[in-house]
Write a structure and sequence with these properties.
By secondary structure, the protein is α/β, with parallel strands linked by helices. The chain has a single domain, classed as TIM Barrel.
């Protein structure tokens, strides 16, 4: 996954235009048609950090059906258990969830988990949150799927005070947490930055982004990953911020995109070799970026998104073939006069 801070208004530097992060291959059969074991994931995380990736990401799903082909079920390693182990195995890269469904865990418990991972990582966590969107896995694992946005808003009313202030007293329709304290606390004052995933067709979620989030994510990786997709989404986020009385420039923008790197990461890919790519049937036709910026002229359009507009975005990437085929997300966020991809 990629966490991007692309606010470069200062003089040119030797930094690359955007920072890049990696979404780890949690999904069953994602590594050369094999399932990555813990030793594989740890090795990939350390290799990515050593290679200069700026952030490492996990996704929060349990069981997906039809991601690559109709009727094919694929499971995933649990994201927080994995992220905790990655936190103890790395030193520099930021770590995040893209995104953690509040519908899967009691919000007070999720705050406790996030705070603990932030402590293990020495303050490197980005807490990505979402309402959950895939009905079948909620049914399979026994979680309610009704009133998703209402449940998400109540979860935020517990999560955020606990992480930012250390205590909460809340009673709502779906959740209750009375006189709860978060103790002990991570050494990072105010807790980790909060990222919320939402698209333009979800105005209630965009309102919550504007009111509560430090970062926003648009997940484009299962549909079109072209830069022109982000402009209407950014406009919707800007409008939500303005409606909430927030300066849009204070919100970091992020976008998860799919990159088929092919032969650009060492070695040529032979015809017919197994490469993990979603079928594109969940969010429309699949349109990944392909190859390197030198090979695909559409890459510069993403860089322009960062340089020319206030807060660009964040992104993610998952290896499809060991270190060659890569499912990636890229994005940017404008803040502090520099560019960052994670």
């Amino acid at each position: 996954m990629i966490d991007v801070d692309i606010n470069r208004n200062d003089a040119p530097s030797r930094r690359r235009p955007i920072e890049v992060g990696l979404v780890l291959p949690q999904i069953e059969g994602m590594m050369e048609e094999q399932t990555a074991r813990w030793n594989d994931l740890a090795a990939k995380a350390r290799l990515a950090e050593d290679a200069g990736f700026d952030s490492l990401w996990t996704i929060d799903h349990f069981l997906l059906d039809g991601l690559r082909e109709p009727g094919r079920k694929e499971g995933l390693w649990e994201c927080w258990s994995l992220l905790s182990a990655i936190a103890a195995s790395t030193e520099r890269a930021k770590l995040g969830t893209l995104v953690s469904a509040t519908s899967f865990r009691n919000p007070a418990l999720l705050a406790k988990i996030a705070d603990t991972v932030d402590e293990i990582s020495s303050g490197r966590l980005i807490l990505g949150l979402g309402s959950g969107w895939y009905d079948p896995e909620h049914t399979a694992f026994g979680y309610p799927f009704d009133h998703r946005v209402g449940r998400f808003e109540e979860a935020l009313n517990i999560l955020l005070p606990l992480l930012r202030d250390g205590h909460v007293d809340f009673s709502g329709t779906y959740y209750e947490s009375r006189e709860c304290e978060l103790r002990p606390r991570s050494s990072r004052e105010g807790g980790p930055p909060v990222l919320i995933g939402a698209l333009a067709h979800a105005p209630r979620m965009l309102r919550l982004v504007a009111e509560h989030a430090d970062m926003w994510n648009a997940w484009l990786a299962f549909g079109s990953s072209q830069a022109e997709q982000i402009q209407p989404l950014r406009e919707a986020v800007d409008a939500a911020c303005e409606k909430a009385g927030r300066d849009p420039a204070t919100l970091k923008r992020t976008a998860g995109v799919l990159v088929d790197v092919g032969s650009t990461m060492g070695g040529s890919r032979t015809a017919g070799s197994p490469v993990w790519l979603p079928a594109g049937n969940l969010f429309g036709p699949l349109e990944p970026l392909r190859g390197s910026p030198e090979e695909d002229s559409r890459w510069p359009a993403w860089l322009r998104q960062g340089r020319h507009h206030a807060p660009p975005g964040l992104a993610g990437a998952e290896h499809a073939r060991r270190h060659r085929g890569v499912r990636a997300g890229a994005g940017a966020s404008r803040r502090g006069g520099r560019e960052r991809v994670g």
